[in-house]
Specification:
Layout (H helix, E strand, L loop, with lengths): L1 E4 L6 E5 L4 H18 L4 H5 L2 H23 L3 H25 L3 E2 L6 E8 L2 E5 L7 H12 L3 E5 L5 H13 L7 E3 L8 H4 L4 E7 L2 H13 L4 E4 L4 E5 L5 H13 L9 E7 H15 L20 H17 L2 E4 L3 E2 L2 E5 L2 E4 L6 H4 L6 E7 L2 H9 L3 E2 L1 E5 L3 H10 L4 E4 L14 E2 L2 E2 L4 H5 L3 E8 L1
Parallel strand pairs: 5-6, 5-8, 6-7, 8-9, 10-11, 10-18, 11-16, 15-16, 18-19
Antiparallel strand pairs: 1-2, 3-4, 4-22, 9-21, 12-15, 13-14, 17-20
Helix pairs in contact: 3-4, 3-6, 4-5, 9-10
């Protein structure tokens, strides 16, 4: 059985029966059959379904937000914002998909030549729990609009959210079999990743999950997008506006209770302003209010499970034994064991576990530097390469960081985030491929060349 458990109360919310192998294969076959009709529509005809989806999202926003809060524990205000972001995604592709998928003529030795963008078939999406709507929508919407069918295998603890998404697309008028939900645990996914009717795979998850699914898909020669973990650096130079930088850093690190792949996880601060920046961060961290994620005064939610609290505590305790110092926080909340206190760690060395591993919770790691090249070296001293943030007014420093930091995205003087118009993904252990923007829309198409004499 799959289970949904309220992270705040520990209450069992719902159980769901796991599908049998035959039922799951029939579901994929139904999605393939729906694809055969769907691919025959023009892009404009597919896009015409999006206004209804936008309307449905608006009508269901409060119900969807509350469901996410109950299942994975995020603040209700953050859940509302997540649903709203899905609406923006739909609006973006409504306005841009037809242009981005239009055939292109390219001059060659032919009378006429170029490329057309044609769908592949059924795309399997394996999605995580931390943004149960946004991460599913940024896979589903471009996948369907480019002419494919989608099968969603969501994280088990947000099964209710997965089924709500499926119902939402039916409500919006999409063919009923075009988007389906697989009710299966991750351990049973290999035969479906390799299934002959599955044309491609999209995974958002951990580095370990990426390696496993990547090996399964690679054996079957499947196109894949793998959006994996991050250990994002947040660089602060001495000319930065420290108040804005500290506020942005703390928001980035502690939003969604720190459970975000693109959160700023390593604060790398120039020595001249290190103490001042840290003082500001400490003051902000101590203003967070822990409590019921549905209450409007709560500003820090519980982690998604008690197991995650235990894992995070183990990582922090290990770092302290290695010589790191806890400036504030550094433990679980005595009133509710589902919470980990907002934590700042200093005296961290680059080789320490907390500087190397992704910490999925409200813990910030603080390091210092003196020179620009030292800052870039520290930023790149990670197996991950998802995003990076830089705070400086110096245009030359900005450009050097943009050129030399190994990351899929570099944000300067602002909050690192995903945006529907901008390609999103990483390098190194942070993944393969891109979502969002025109790159995401074309992630699962056959870019077919034509040449006519």
């Amino acid at each position: 059985m799959l289970q949904s458990v309220n992270p705040y109360t520990g209450e069992l919310l719902q159980t769901y029966p796991v599908m049998g192998r035959r039922e799951a294969e029939e579901l994929i076959q139904h999605a393939h059959t729906a694809f055969l009709d769907w691919r025959g529509l023009t892009v404009a005809e597919r896009v015409a379904f999006l206004p209804n989806l936008i309307t449905a999202l608006g009508e269901e926003q409060e119900r969807l937000a509350l469901l996410a809060t109950l299942e994975m524990g995020k603040l209700l205000s953050e859940a509302r914002a997540e649903v709203q972001k899905c609406l923006y995604l739909c609006q973006y592709y409504l306005e841009n998909a037809a242009t981005q998928l239009a055939p292109e003529q390219i001059a060659s030795d032919a009378r006429r030549s170029g490329v057309v963008y044609q769908p592949l078939g059924v795309v399997l999406g394996i999605m995580p729990w931390n943004f149960p709507y946004w991460q599913a929508f940024r896979f589903i919407v471009p996948t369907l609009i480019s002419g494919n069918a989608a099968v969603l295998k969501h994280a088990s603890n947000v099964t209710g959210c997965a089924l709500a998404i499926e119902a939402l697309f039916v409500k919006a008028g999409f063919p009923s079999q075009l988007l389906r939900v697989l009710l299966l645990p991750g351990a049973q996914m290999q035969p479906f990743v390799q299934h002959e009717r599955v044309a491609a795979v999209s995974l958002t998850g951990s580095e370990g999950a990426g390696k496993q699914v990547g090996s399964w898909g690679g054996t079957a020669l499947k196109p894949m997008v793998l959006e994996l973990g991050g250990n994002d650096p947040f660089l602060v130079f001495e000319d930065a506006d420290l108040d804005v930088a500290a506020k942005t850093a703390m928001h980035s690190r502690f939003q969604n209770a720190g459970q975000s792949c693109i959160a700023a996880k390593r604060f790398i601060v120039q020595q001249a302003v290190y103490a001042s920046f840290l003082e500001r961060c400490k003051a902000i961290s101590e203003t967070y209010v822990l409590g019921d994620p549905q209450h409007p005064n709560t500003t820090l939610a519980p982690l998604a499970s008690r197991q995650f609290v235990s894992e995070l505590a183990s990582q922090v305790n290990h770092s302290v034994k290695e010589g790191a110092s806890v400036v504030t926080g550094g433990g679980t909340w005595t009133k509710n064991e589902g919470f980990y206190l907002p934590t700042l760690l200093t005296q961290v060395q680059p080789q320490m576990l907390v500087a190397k591993e992704e910490l999925f919770g409200p813990v910030a790691v603080c390091l210092s530097f003196n020179t620009l090249q030292e800052a870039i070296r520290l930023a790149n001293d990670s197996k991950f390469g998802l995003g990076a943030t830089v705070f400086t007014q110096d245009v030359e420093i900005q450009q050097t960081c943009l050129n030399q930091i190994d990351a899929g995205s570099v944000f300067v003087n602002g909050l690192m985030k995903s945006h529907p118009a901008l390609p999103f993904g990483g390098v190194k252990a942070s993944g393969v491929g891109r979502e969002l923007g025109k790159e995401g829309l074309r992630a699962f198409v056959n870019i077919k060349t034509y040449w006519i004499r």
